[in-house]
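Progress note, project year one: complex with iron/sulfur cluster.
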Amino acid sequence: MQPLLEIKDLDISFRKGGGRLLPVIDAANLHLNQRQAVGIVGESGSGKTMLCRALIGTLPRHGAAITSGTIRFDDQELAGAPERVWRSIRGREIGYIPQSSLAGLNPVLTVETQLVESITAVQSQSRQQARQKAVALLERVRIPRAEQVLKARAHQLSGGMRQRVMIAAAIAQAPKLLIADEPTTALDVTIQREILTLITQLRQELGMALILVSHDLGVIEEVCDSVMVMYAGASVEAGPVGVLSTSPRHPYTRALRVSRVDRAVPGTDLEAIPGDAASVGSWPAGCRFWPRCSLADNACRRDPQPALMPIGLQLSACIHADRMFELEE
Amino acid sequence: MAAALLEGKDITVTFGRGAEAFDAVHVANVAVHAGEAVGIVGESGSGKTTLARVLVGLQRPTAGEVWLEGERIFTRRHQQMPRSERWKTQIIFQDPYSSLNPRMRVWQAVAEAVQVWQSLSKPEAKLEALQLLHAMGISDDQAQQFPKALSGGQRQRVSVARALAPGPKVLIADEPTSSIDQSAQAQLLNLLRQLQTARGLAIIFISHDLGLVRYLTSRVYVMQKGDIVETGDTRLILEQPEHSYTRLLIDSIPGR
Ligand SMILES: Nc1ncnc2c1ncn2[C@@H]1O[C@H](COP(=O)(O)OP(=O)(O)OP(=O)(O)O)[C@@H](O)[C@H]1O
Ligand SMILES: Nc1ncnc2c1ncn2[C@@H]1O[C@H](COP(=O)(O)OP(=O)(O)O)[C@@H](O)[C@H]1O
Ligand code: SF4
Ligand SMILES: [Mg+2]
Ligand SMILES: [Mg+2]
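Model obtained:
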């Protein structure tokens, strides 16, 4: 089957003063079939949000650009595509719910103003048509009394309601791919569940593929078919969800599981990954995880960041992927 | 048992007027002792954040009183806490985006909080700020940036450093870990536990993550529609909930 999205060895840098480039993503890889859902997990600051921005062509707004690699989406090459192409993709083919979306609605404007704006921004149509469409969209995201909600201002809505409005805006053009960057992070658990159910229903109704960024492995296991793990700008592991949780093939993925609080005994310390998080501008030479990895040896420190290689049912960017069993539980 | 460090007595917060009036918090009683960690759980809109805001004086209660170290500090009429006391209670908010000044470098935001409450010179305050940030996994490079150059999870960790800067006696954390990865979350929880045992920090931990609440807290309050419907030993309540609502919350955990 032809994949919907194939990201290969993507590199992204911030443009700093004096023409200096500051790499933030180096070797991101992602494979997504039509209608499938992939989760992205990873260290905070590893570049998940920047990768999402690359997929809707907004890197320049954040002072960054793709320096190499490819993004193949539905038979089109998007890496280096001009703004004209992005305008036909952004919102139409790829919908986006940004990470800060709960803060993203303007608190003093009405839902109508903001939703109608996001509809007319993509399609020229009369206000009346756009308004009808907005009502239909709110109904589609299961908002009761849609007419009333249209007149509300964002600050009058609960977090769950606001997130529904953001989802409505993102799916307005029935995109082939929806990107949701931590869509439930700021929501309470019962609302979180409703939003995840909604996203899953919409995927089925619209035949959408999904990229879901989340720190909650439970959420990803529930919603996604596969998962990609990022560390310091690189994809370090990828594969089917169940397999990565039960038999991770990269020490970082494994460490995520070990740090999980639901396995911890109250009153004892949690097992955090030793050492400092890798920060942009000071990635270590060699495998970027080596200063924090108990399997690291001279080869890990000497050779460049390992490429993703198949092992068993998944891909791993660790030269010792076959030695994972040596790590103690 | 010794007197509570921070206590909310019969707190009610009514929003709206006339027919539209409703109690976001209804006659709620909560207390936390030095060195203790208590949890507040409950679905969205149940009043957790509103109650937390009352406890730190950001929201005036319609009825009830807040007591700190045996003194009444907030009531419906009286919302004044001496400035010199305000460092004692700190709050970390659910939303990391709106809580940092975009025009201040990260270390400055934390150093400011250090300096306002502790009489330190500027260089001393900077050093202390950098140390706190480092404990939260923020490098010196990142500390030099403005908030917009930080990722969501990094910003959340800066907010935590800022709240811990004055060395508070009570920390109220409103959903503080959902935007950070598992390992950073473990780091934060270890730090909180360390402050709890070494310095007697009292913690009120509001979270939708019942696993976290089970790990960190010894007592828990369950809120529903403004009422505290169940309270007691965390493990007992999460394992044998009496209230059907608590059961519902437990069943909503993803991956179950
Ligand atoms: N303008 C900038 N200049 C320099 N570094 C930046 C800038 N903007 C972002 N960064 C850095 O880029 C890195 C990647 O950020 P990104 O927002 O993609 O992280 P993330 O993986 O989404 O993290 P989180 O899980 O915390 O949301 C971060 O380390 C951040 O500090
Ligand atoms: N300033 C306000 N004006 C009117 N209603 C409010 C205000 N702040 C909160 N509320 C309402 O009070 C209720 C409790 O909210 P909140 O304390 O934020 O709940 P939680 O933190 O448990 O999700 C909700 O119905 C919310 O909409
Ligand atoms: S390549 Fe070496 S340092 Fe990197 S993750 Fe694998 S074992 Fe650890
Ligand atoms: Mg992010
Ligand atoms: Mg809240």
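Residues 1-88+202-256 of chain B form a domain with the Rossmann fold fold (CATH 3.40.50.300).
Residues 169 and 195 of chain B are 10 Å apart (CA to CA).
No further modelling is planned for this target in the current period.
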